[in-house]
Fold these 4 entries.
Entry 1:
Amino acid sequence: MAKKSNLKIQNIVATASLGKRVPLVKFASSQASSEYNPEQFPGLVLRVKKPKSAVLVFSSGNLVCTGTKSVAQVREVIGEVMRKLRKIKINIRGKPRINVQNIVASGSTGMSLDLNMLAIELENTEYEPEQFPGLVYKLPEINATFLLFSNGKLVCTGTKNKPQLDHAMKLLVRNLKSIKS
């Protein structure tokens, strides 16, 4: 029997809009922890130390936040970006709406897995052990993708919230058990 999944969120990718244009050259010159090379990429990369993350800031006022482990941390990081903008007289009113685009979580099924058998028995899999030791298993009905390893460890990506992540894990375990039976 599988034990508790023990999924741990490793990274959240979220977007938000400040609803106001950002002068990136001015912003970059006020931030030591930023990179801005408009010839290579249209956004400014702002590194935040705590919680450790990176934010892409675009001149449109759109933000992409990566590296956080919770939505609360995303809010904290976006709040920090807004404080830094206020320091250079860019006043943003209200709270930007945060949209989680992707959650990456790791954990374990609690059981050893025969990846060769799973590649044959499950639909929506890719397994090329000479290229990579993990099996890619997609659950298209909830847009979740798992990387499964023979020791039972896994990585899940594609979900947008904790209930969806938990549901994906339940479906995975159910599908694995249906094959083992």
Entry 2:
Amino acid sequence: MPETLVIVPTYNEIESLEGLVGRLRQSVPLADILVVDDSSPDGTGALADRLAATDPGIRVLHRTGKQGLGKAYLAGFEQALADGYDFVVEIDADGSHDPDDLPGMLELAEAGADLVIGSRWVAGGEVRNWPWIRQAISKAGNWYARTMLRSRIRDITAGFRVFRASALRDVDLAGVSSQGYCFQVEVAWNLERTGHRIAEHPITFVERATGRSKMHAGIVIEALLRVTAWGLAAALRRSR
């Protein structure tokens, strides 16, 4: 397997982190793991340090304060590119993404995809234990983003991804300022509109069993406003 770095952003995920790391070790035993912790007050960072002390393939990046998902991944991307990894993985710490899907996603990346998205909304994908309102918001958000941005990606907000490192180098990461859903949209759209190859791999997304969701209205509003602005700007450029 080519050199792979799995980035796990954490904030108050002490109940789920160790289980996720164990599952990653079973599914992709040769991959390295980078936990990016935003000074979790519940002790997640200290737990990550203990896991790293027993596994040389685990590292921990401690950040000051809660800076958000997007900045956590950008910090992880910077580390991955500096260390020369071939592939970079995004995965949620709460256990909603199944590491058993990673070998198949990495195969698509090895075959030439610049970005592989673990997709809930393609044939074979599904969501479990989500209330209908969460499903409706996700489907509506993806539809709106696809429409405004003229994207062909079915699950552009998804957070389970494999990037080819060379493709990440083509993205102006310093110019990415979004968080949450919107961060995922921005990075995927940047790659799509610059001609990079994107593949979607069906996954089963399972709602977290422990801890609290980080989703809130502000994340949805940010995504709505930014996607609208990007779509209108792109339409204006086309009209010129």
Entry 3:
Amino acid sequence: MEKLVLCKELEPGIALVTINRPQALNALDPDVLTALYQAMDELDQAVDIKVVIITGAGEKAFVAGADIASMRTMTPEEAMTFTQIGHRTMDRVASMSKVTIAAVNGFALGGGCELALACDIRIASAKARMAIPESGLGVIPGFGGTQRLPRLVGLGMSLELLTTGRQCRADECLSIGLVNRVVEPEALMDACLELARAVGKNSGSAIALGKQAIYQGVELPLAEGLQLERQLFSSAFSTADQKEGMTAFLEKRNAKFQ
């Protein structure tokens, strides 16, 4: 039996995680969610990895959503267990100290859209389609979509997408800020790799601190967010990367970060 989640190092410092259930358009069930959690947890502890690219197997879908067949007969108690598994996995993706890039290669619907939202950066194929269609199924997003989507695209657009359930083409996803960039399908992985290489040249410890400042600070009043920045800025001066980065700058050479 093939693994539900594949993980490999594409090149030094850059890992690729692939949801590997193409026959079901990479739909998320508890087994896939658990395997994804484990893969991301291991990568976050890997000192030699700076960037993780997440994509879906096949050409049709990033992740087409949660597995509706397995959800149809759930009781409220079973649904609570399922959403807890989903939240645990999405929170693990969102809390990575490494940079995460969603390579959205096709349909990213429901849970697939929520997985993309949990990533730091989203690059979409021109053929990608994204939506949160749960209202048409009699439910709401259950893997963090109601909270992460408005933080990314705003309240009004989030409510439109939630209430209509309509699919957004790649160009609209770009215009509303749902994705960072749109490229031709054949250029998707190259674009993700180019971005990952640019990230990989910089300090991993500084990036982790910067992510912490942004993600925690956005939830705080401005004064508290600025205090958080001061604390994290000063803590960077205890790292080897700060010493190396500033020394390399003054010596007019490329920094060699740990």
Entry 4:
Amino acid sequence: MAEYLYGINPIHEAFQGAGRKPLELLVLSGERNDRLDDLVAQAKQQQLEVHFFDRRELDRLAGHTHHQGVLLKLTPYVYTDLATLLQGGAKSGKPAFFLLLDGITDPHNFGAILRSAEVAGCRGVIVAKDRSCPVTPVVEKTAAGALSYLSLCQVTNLSRAIDELKTAGVWCYGLAGDEDARDLFATDLKGPLALVVGSEGKGLRPNIRKHCDGLLSIPMSGHIDSLNASVATGIALFEVVRQNQQ
């Protein structure tokens, strides 16, 4: 079943990237501006059909009114398998860098994390099949086009995926607020590495913690002792980037 992506920037990135195949562009009738005209021109360059709809019909197809006057019909999202993800990292010539998500269920958090992962240069993001938010239009809109460039892998058993990464020589660190967790900023994060992030409420499951090579915590100086999952993930991702650029 085809799906709709909405928003000018995400659709622009979908045309530029190598993600899902665009099928047709749907534009609000009578709505004209340079950015919409550019999307129409890109669609025609790719020999896609462009259809114009009144606002009521476009709202119905999108399921809301926040589409910015344009929808892109896409083929269904296809997840990358873990073996392909590992091979792709090996061929790049750069140290492997992965992100694993254990139970992120909020679509806005998920999209924001995917955006940060792509910008940080992750080779791919690995999620559990039964305990994660699926790829939805809200996720793709929040990710701002990241899934046009970033591989997303869905696995049945996340702890087994961690073991496979470790077998491939990738160090796997879980983010946690435990007292015995290492300071993120004082830990050597150079080389092949994967970060494992838990759910918004309960964090990492005990079994996932056991499979990690170690736990990392972000030092807190204020009265509140926790961060939003997407914010914590972004901090950790770019600490890895910082260390590997030195």
